[in-house]
């Protein structure tokens, strides 16, 4: 399996603490990723949050709901997670949350591994999600 890494950076007009708490709350992930349509079974533990997410993929008139188990590991200015999806697609991601003049910089980093036949599709979807997440965070914190 091949692995691909990529990042985006978004600057938000909010404190790092506010951004951290927003990203650490699974309920806020609905709509944050255009694929995530439901979050359920939230379980909070010291230093982490576990939950079930439903990702919806649309292929023309067809749709597929992908149910995944997610663990967010909460660190000092970082949130990391990983998911193994059907087909052997593995995504490790992380947010680095830092104070900058006027707000907070969020670096959203992905490491994605997938079998040859799924790599291109998976990377394309992940990059779309990452770009949309930056736009949605900007919208949420600008309000």
Automatic annotation (TrEMBL):
Top-level taxon of origin: Bacteria
One Pfam family it belongs to: Polyketide_cyc2
InterPro entries per the UniProt record, alphabetical: Polyketide_cyclase/dehydratase, START-like_dom_sf
Cross-referenced SUPFAM superfamilies: Bet v1-like
Gene3D superfamilies reported in the protein's UniProt record: 3.30.530.20
UniProt protein name: SRPBCC family protein
Organism, as annotated: Herbidospora galbida
């Amino acid at each position: 399996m091949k692995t691909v890494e990529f990042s985006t950076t978004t600057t938000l007009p909010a404190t790092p603490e506010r951004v951290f708490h927003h990203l650490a709350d699974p309920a806020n992930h609905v709509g944050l990723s255009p694929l995530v349509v439901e979050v359920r079974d939230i379980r909070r533990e010291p230093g982490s949050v576990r939950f079930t997410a439903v990702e919806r993929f649309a292929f023309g008139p067809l749709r597929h709901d992908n149910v995944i188990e997610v663990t967010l590991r909460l660190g000092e200015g970082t949130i990391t997670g990983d998911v193994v999806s059907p087909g052997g697609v593995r995504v490790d991601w992380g947010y680095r949350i830092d104070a900058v003049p006027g707000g907070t910089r969020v670096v959203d980093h992905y490491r994605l591994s997938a079998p040859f036949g799924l790599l291109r599709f998976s990377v394309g979807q992940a990059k779309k999600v990452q770009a949309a997440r930056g736009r949605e965070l900007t919208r949420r914190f600008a309000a």
